């Protein structure tokens, strides 16, 4: 028996009783049989209570829970503290204000409660960062407790896409990530759903993600924790991750462009694996030489195309005749595009096959 069904029954009983009472009074005033009108109006009230009670009880509460789930815990605490402070100030001022002549002595205390409550919540929410930062400088605070992201205490949320990508295992093995990698249960469920997909490509990607997750738990030096923490009232995994990151005040590790943009718009820190890969690519300047294995023809006539170890494309002028051979080339231009870095080069006189 669900809560909504119980509320419907209670509403049906209450409105049925009220309807029966009103029906009896109407029948008495009209000089008609009271029992008939009491039963008729009571039945109408019971039906209205059964149908309309959730609109005023469970549905507003469910909407309120959804809204509160999206608000960071620090904001809720600041708002509650501001409300209490505003009520205390209003209580202290209500007595002298109540001594004013009527009608001011009766109206102004009530208005003071509303105004100071609103001001308290508004001010404390706006200055929440400054208010909670005071706790970091209180005497007796250990240095390791001054920041939730200090040292190894930082939590990093993992997205499904970054687990499937696989590079996270190598990055974690290097020791560049500090803190604990947190994988919510709903991310693990999505990964399992992909691994069980009837599509062969999605199934292979999901199974690779499972293997990467197993490697993260066994071989890396970074702690990995799977948590049952969830966000109620939200179904989309990306929305859950953003809300959870705001509540925990931690970054999201991903390579999903859409999730990256949504998280940044909501003020959530993002660690993007693709941006890291672009940042650590080899930096070459015009005039430098390198060896490239030309593996295919380019778009323009006579061009050859090769790739560096990090995936950077190298377009070689007159490289068509050197297909499937390692050639020493000189960099002529480096172009940064939305898809990544492209290098244009020409063949050196010395070659190595």
Layout of helices and strands, plus pairs?
Elements: H1 3-30, H2 34-56, H3 58-70, H4 73-98, H5 104-126, H6 128-133, E1 155-158, H7 160-165, H8 167-174, E2 180-184, H9 185-195, H10 200-219, E3 224-227, H11 237-248, E4 252-254, H12 257-265, E5 270-272, H13 273-279, E6 289-297, E7 304-307, E8 313-317, E9 325-337, E10 340-347
Parallel strand pairs: 1-2, 1-4, 2-3, 4-5, 8-10
Antiparallel strand pairs: 6-7, 6-9, 7-8, 9-10
Helix pairs in contact: 1-2, 4-5, 8-10, 9-10
Radius of gyration: 33 Å
| CATH top level label of the largest domain | Alpha Beta
Share in β-strands: 15-25%
Structural class: alpha/beta
Helical residue percent band: 40-55%
* Alpha-carbon distance between the two ends: 77 Å
CATH topology of the largest domain: Rossmann fold
Descriptive notes:
- Helix content is 54%, strand content 16%.
- The strands form 2 sheets. Strands 3-2-1-4-5 form a 5-stranded parallel β-sheet.
- It has helices spanning 3-30, 34-56, 58-70, 73-98, 104-126, 128-133, 160-165, 167-174, 185-195, 200-219, 237-248, 257-265, 273-279, and strands at 155-158, 180-184, 224-227, 252-254, 270-272, 289-297, 304-307, 313-317, 325-337, 340-347.
- The chain is elongated.
- The protein is of the alpha/beta class and 353 residues long.
- α1 (3-30) runs antiparallel to α2, α4 packs antiparallel against α5 (104-126) and α8 runs parallel beside α10 (200-219).
